[in-house]
Amino acid sequence: MVRLVCPRLTGRGYAMNEKARVERDICWMYHQLLDLPFLDGDLSYGSDFKLRYWQYLYPAESLSDQDAFITEGCLVMISGGASGITEGSGDPWSADDKISVRKAVCHARLKDNHLEKVRSVTQTIVDAAFDHGYLSTDHPSYDEVADARYWLHENCVQAYFKAAVAGFTQYLVRPKA
Fold this sequence. Notes:
Elements: H1 18-33, H2 65-87, H3 95-107, H4 113-132, H5 142-166
């Protein structure tokens, strides 16, 4: 898990470049998911989170900490949007976008073991969403998708906050004068 330094705001009007918008959206999504035990598909993936997150799956060879955070967060974002489909909450993508999403997730080559696991889990959710749509609790893919959503929450969302808190431990005890 990579800890994020908050996106930089630039210019007088606080205009952000697109990469910074992606980081902001990931942080916002993680904060919205903080009080939940799993990756929830009920967030406004189609209206609040509108960027083409599948275009930010960076190849492992060139992964900076920022790119790794963005890649992981975009995979979680894609999983959240696909979870909305499996929950019956809504579909955030057009038919053409779904083709692009599936292709990007399927063909992303992430040599880092953690990111590859996130990609694989995302693929499970995307495939179930695009192949089956809404999953009732008795659907054969339901348990696998539910487990994937819990895994992503624990290993990405919760891990993000644990890493952030761990970064503050040096400031918890005042040095004695």
